[in-house]
Amino acid sequence: MQGTPAGGTSPGPSPMDRQTLLVFSLILAAALGQMNFTGDQVLRVLAKDEKQLSLLRDLEGLKPQKVDFWRGPARPSLPVDMRVPFSELKYIKAYLESHGLAYSIMIKDIQVLLDEEREAMAKSRRLERSTSSFSYSSYHTLEEIYSWIDNFVTEHSDIVSKIQIGNSFENRSILVLKFSTGGSRHPAIWIDTGIHSREWITHATGIWTANKIVSDYGKDRVLTDILKAMDIFIELVTNPDGFAFTHSMVRAPGKDGRRGSRHLCRTWGFDSLGGFILLPGNGSNSNPCSETYHGPSPQSEPEVAAIVNFITAHGNFKALISIHSYSQMLMYPYGRSLEPVSNQRELYDLAKDAVEALYKVHGIEYFFGSISTTLYVASGITVDWAYDSGIKYAFSFELRDTGRYGFLLPATQIIPTAQETWMALRTIMEHTLNHPY
């Protein structure tokens, strides 16, 4: 485990015509099921200083877009991962070499991993049909997850209910699972997964966690005590439109997956660390093709508005935990500035305890600290909004791995990832229970 001390730091046609043609070609290819990423590579670049970071940021502004940042330029101590289409490899590698930017190849051919993933999902689907069971060790489509939610709630109606908190941009239901032993206005814990649609490991971890709660209630003393006094809300698919789109695209391109003329660029990527960015400001971007795009206005996205309205109306949330991937980090506010929050030491100690509990499961190490000192200063982060709204225990996870597979984490790692994440979640929830406010 590695941490950040409180307040410290840690480790022919016009260009526009070409861009429009590229985007519409990609959308058409997706609709026809022809999207292919053969030869696309993920490169890892380590910038030595701010000047080199600036050179990497320049790549983000290229039109048409030539790279897809998986881990964007943050600080010299952190690696930058980017997917480069086969057609752009020669240009991008020459650019890096000409500026003295050292790089390595993390994934040699993305299509190979996608083919393996597709084959594993098909095999799992056949097995589930033949056994009428749900596999917690496989990735699932939106339809499969929503069907599982209905069955899950029916089977465990004594402790679980389903709440629709809104509709997505494309009018899909936004669903939340509520775990409660009864009563109203209990203090509550919020957990969301899948804000970034291609981070499939987060959805899978959330599903496993939901099942873990009902399985261990009455057996695990800590969990039982938590649920007797508090409610737990889990939003498994925070971005249903993007998640559905990543399955049609086999998830390699962008983060958000938003469609329509209003969101052409965002088909291929939307915002950075904190999910749908809530507020424009430092570290966010007005370019809809940018990974730090802040949206046209605060809480402009219906998915964000649904969360904000629900949490605000409830009025008694004591912890908020937003789960992302990848990088193996556990972070807390602030992201928008280096200013420490009032309970910085408590959050630091709690994060340390959580990653230690996580480490004991499978020996996976996590960095931890405030967002601004662990990654970079960026406005509009979900946990910043939560903290400023009075939710004292606000955390953001970045799950496995550190880049070997990146967003294409094999399904064989779902259960181990969920198991270790659960111990960290349990630690945070227990602390929240034992420190009422």
TrEMBL record:
<keyword id="KW-0479">Metal-binding</keyword>
<dbReference type="InterPro" id="IPR036990">
    <property type="entry name" value="M14A-like_propep"/>
</dbReference>
<dbReference type="InterPro" id="IPR003146">
    <property type="entry name" value="M14A_act_pep"/>
</dbReference>
<keyword id="KW-0964">Secreted</keyword>
<dbReference type="GO" id="GO:0005615">
    <property type="term" value="C:extracellular space"/>
</dbReference>
<feature type="domain" description="Peptidase M14">
    <location>
        <begin position="138"/>
        <end position="432"/>
    </location>
</feature>
<keyword id="KW-0378">Hydrolase</keyword>
<dbReference type="Pfam" id="PF00246">
    <property type="entry name" value="Peptidase_M14"/>
</dbReference>
<dbReference type="InterPro" id="IPR057246">
    <property type="entry name" value="CARBOXYPEPT_ZN_1"/>
</dbReference>
<keyword id="KW-1015">Disulfide bond</keyword>
<dbReference type="GO" id="GO:0008270">
    <property type="term" value="F:zinc ion binding"/>
</dbReference>
<dbReference type="InterPro" id="IPR034248">
    <property type="entry name" value="CPA_M14_CPD"/>
</dbReference>
<keyword id="KW-0645">Protease</keyword>
<comment type="similarity">
    <text>Belongs to the peptidase M14 family.</text>
</comment>
<keyword id="KW-0482">Metalloprotease</keyword>
<feature type="active site" description="Proton donor/acceptor">
    <location>
        <position position="398"/>
    </location>
</feature>
<protein>
    <submittedName>
        <fullName>Carboxypeptidase A5</fullName>
    </submittedName>
</protein>
<dbReference type="GO" id="GO:0004181">
    <property type="term" value="F:metallocarboxypeptidase activity"/>
</dbReference>
<dbReference type="GO" id="GO:0006508">
    <property type="term" value="P:proteolysis"/>
</dbReference>
<keyword id="KW-0121">Carboxypeptidase</keyword>
<keyword id="KW-0732">Signal</keyword>
<dbReference type="InterPro" id="IPR057247">
    <property type="entry name" value="CARBOXYPEPT_ZN_2"/>
</dbReference>
<keyword id="KW-0862">Zinc</keyword>
<dbReference type="Pfam" id="PF02244">
    <property type="entry name" value="Propep_M14"/>
</dbReference>
<dbReference type="InterPro" id="IPR000834">
    <property type="entry name" value="Peptidase_M14"/>
</dbReference>
